[in-house]
Write a structure and sequence with these properties.
The structure is a single chain. The longest helix has 24 residues. Helix 1 runs parallel beside helix 6, helix 2 crosses helix 3 and helix 2 crosses helix 4. The chain has a 3-stranded antiparallel sheet with strand order 1-3-2. By secondary structure, it is mostly helical. 55% of the residues lie in helices and 7% in strands. It is elongated. The N and C termini lie far apart (72 Å). This is Transcriptional regulator.
Length: 216
């Protein structure tokens, strides 16, 4: 088991999978860590409290929903236990980015598990980058207007990310500008709410006319 190649492949898969949210990824990485601790067996048992703690998940309902999602989306095989003294069983499906690794580990792959070829992944990522960056400013403005935002806000978004090369934090290349734009809108909403609250409050407003003769 080459965990570096596995992680490289799984992160590429995460980048292309729009079904995932941060909790899914956090849970998967917690499961991966327990798989690592157990020296990558074919299957291993987990303790819910330990996995939730490592994955920073506070809700049991969210934990079970994400486990089921990861199972349905072919990241893991989840075999729940109804015995309170025995943990549920997990089988993490193997991913890699090397045809050489595929040959070496072909006997270890679960039935029906398809490896993710490096060439196909790279092509998909390249296509994703080509098709998921805006062609021009008008495309961005149309998107904002469809989302019931002003063209001015769309122009702010376009100018900002054009100036930094369409990268998050100046480092990570954006692969889905629609998602980035929606996050921009969410932050803009939050800023508007904060400003509205601050305008309605007089807590920080003071009068220049003070009577220092009054007791505190």
């Amino acid at each position: 088991m080459n965990y570096i190649k596995h992680l490289n492949a799984i992160f590429q898969q995460f980048a292309m999978d729009s079904n995932l949210n941060p909790t899914h990824i956090s849970l998967y990485m917690a499961l991966f860590q327990f798989w690592n601790i157990n020296r990558f067996p074919e299957t291993f048992y987990i303790n819910r409290e330990e996995v939730m703690k490592m994955g920073k998940i506070g809700s049991k309902a969210t934990y079970h929903r994400c486990l089921k999602n990861l199972n349905d989306w072919k990241y893991i095989h989840y075999l729940p236990s109804h015995n309170p003294y025995k943990g549920s069983q997990i089988k993490i499906l193997k991913f890699n980015t090397s045809s050489e690794t595929s040959t070496e580990t072909s006997n270890e792959q679960p039935v029906g598990q398809a490896l993710v070829p490096n060439i196909n992944i790279n092509k998909q990522i390249e296509n994703s980058i080509k098709t998921k960056l805006p062609k021009n400013e008008n495309e961005v403005l149309d998107f904002f207007i469809k989302k019931e935002w002003t063209a001015i806000e769309g122009k702010k978004f376009y100018n900002h990310y054009t100036s930094i090369g369409w990268k998050l934090g100046g480092k990570i290349k954006i692969v889905n500008w629609h998602a980035t734009a929606e996050n921009w809108m969410l932050k803009a909403n939050e800023i508007e709410k904060v400003e509205a609250v601050s305008q309605n409050k007089d807590n920080l407003k003071t009068t220049k006319i003070k009577d220092y003769g009054q007791p505190l």
